[in-house]
Amino acid sequence: MLLDGKLISEEIKKRVAEEVYSLNDTLTLAIILVGKDPASEIYVNSKTKACEKAGIKTKDYFLDNKIPEKELIDLIRTLNEDPLITGILVQMPLPSHISEDNVVNSIDPAKDVDGLNIINQGKLLNNANCIVPATPKGILSLLKRYFVEISGKHAVIIGRSKLVGKPMALLLLNNNATITVCHSRTENLKEIVKRADIVIVAIGKPKFLTADMVKKDAAVIDVGINRVQGKIVGDVDFEEVSEVASYITPVPRGVGPMTIASLLENVVKCYHMQNK
Q: Residue 274 catalytic?
């Protein structure tokens, strides 16, 4: 079965728009983009459009890629204190002279729509109420929406990034799955993945996951977005693996739309955290 992220994301966006309208207040997301990375500009544009459709205002800060780290953090601190700003998003990656950790940890945890602040990460570790990174949150929503069994199942995550792999492992663990996290140093990768009931691939290698690595009737989630010969392909060989898997996400129309929808949910959650 196709896990249609585009379809489910539209349901979530509609629900978010209705909630934003019912709040009878103005929600504003501050979006900070440092430099002119083309991919980042595309991501920012898609996030801005989604916010507009949901009734969430955006305030863009397009900064020179030579901006000093201190100046960027000073801007974030000003936004932290601005009661008219609901959430703050710093588009990654940042230039090499700026520490991503220093930047995300300067964001007020209650305005941290990406859920990357160490406070939110620590709360996720403890299964406490927090802002969860949008991609893992979207994946979990998609699995639950299609009634994919998680509790008691073996989930293998390929990739250990702070944005996807690590928070995904904690989310699934908090939902009673048994977790294995694989990465570039993992030995016997094929044998490990072959035992998985749920496979989540987030490593940025086109068509890396092939059918011979997947157990029959497993659920396969493809987080990858790779451009190959002018086409967008995932980290999963969709044609092959779809013959084996019981559930699979397409690329595009899979995890990407769910990430955007979950980001909108996070903006609303930030609002509620600030207005308890």
A: no
